[in-house]
Automatic annotation (TrEMBL):
This is FMN reductase (NADH) RutF. One of its GO terms (biological process) is pyrimidine nucleobase catabolic process. It comes from Maritalea myrionectae. GO terms for molecular function: FMN binding; riboflavin reductase (NADPH) activity. Pfam families: Flavin_Reduct (PF01613). Keywords: Oxidoreductase. PANTHER family: FLAVIN REDUCTASE, FMN REDUCTASE (NADH) RUTF. It comes from the Bacteria. Residues 34-183 form the Flavin reductase like domain.
Length: 194
């Protein structure tokens, strides 16, 4: 069987994506390269039959606008993974530049208990839906519509059920790049000549 056929077999296998037998890329070098990919920082929250949980995540991506679909990659070893799957819902809270302390707390720094994390970030709970982090730039509340297990992480697809946009449209986002927190600035307005 040719390499392309083997690759296609792997992609079409469904469920877990098999490790690539030919990849000789070192895991540390891979992580180092990916540290150069600037990414917005979010807190993913969930609530439901399994209870409340939250985690800081930058592996978040828009997938489709019809239906409105996003994905988030969650470590299979982290408790959040099981909570989200059991609840069937999650909310993406996009953090603002002045919310680094919240990002660090939901990434486990300071070892703050889960219930206390939600109190400290001023989370607003809407019935049994996932809590919304106060003053987040935007929040997208989703129902899980698909899960794909890939190595250490679950790629979790969600269709948006509700959206909340922060009041201050000029608020800059919190960004993670080369293992440090940053924010963004406009270099040149759209259409403006150099
Ligand atoms: C900036 C940043 C981005 C992160 N992105 C992700 C991610 O996309 N997916 C993930 O599973 N973990 C991600 N993590 C790691 C988790 O936040 C961390 O392992 C987890 O919260 C452990 O803390 P806890 O067990 O105290 O909750 C990220 C951490 C940081 C600091």
């Amino acid at each position: 069987m040719g390499q392309n056929a083997k690759a296609s077999e792997r992609l079409n296998a469904g469920g877990a994506v098999a490790p690539h037998p030919l990849s000789s890329v070192d895991a540390a070098a891979f992580r180092n390269a990916l540290s150069r990919l600037a990414a917005a920082v979010n807190v993913i929250t969930t609530d439901g039959p399994a209870g409340q949980c939250g985690v800081t995540a930058s592996a978040v991506c828009s997938v489709s606008d019809t239906p409105p679909t996003v994905l988030v990659c969650l470590n299979r070893a982290h408790r959040m993974n099981g909570f989200v799957k059991a609840n069937g819902t999650f909310c993406i809270n996009m953090l603002a530049a002045d919310q680094q302390d919240i990002a660090e707390m939901f990434a486990g720094f300071g070892r703050v208990g889960m219930a206390e994390r939600f109190i400290r970030c001023g989370a607003i709970s809407d019935m049994d839906r996932a809590p919304i982090v106060a003053n987040a730039i935007a929040a997208i509340d989703c129902d899980i519509t698909g899960i794909r297990e890939v190595g250490t992480h679950s790629v979790i697809f969600g269709t948006a059920r509700a959206i909340k946009i922060g009041k201050d449209q000029r608020k800059a986002p919190l960004v993670y790049h080369q293992r440090h927190y940053h924010t963004v600035q406009i270099l040149k307005s759209n259409g403006e000549s150099a």
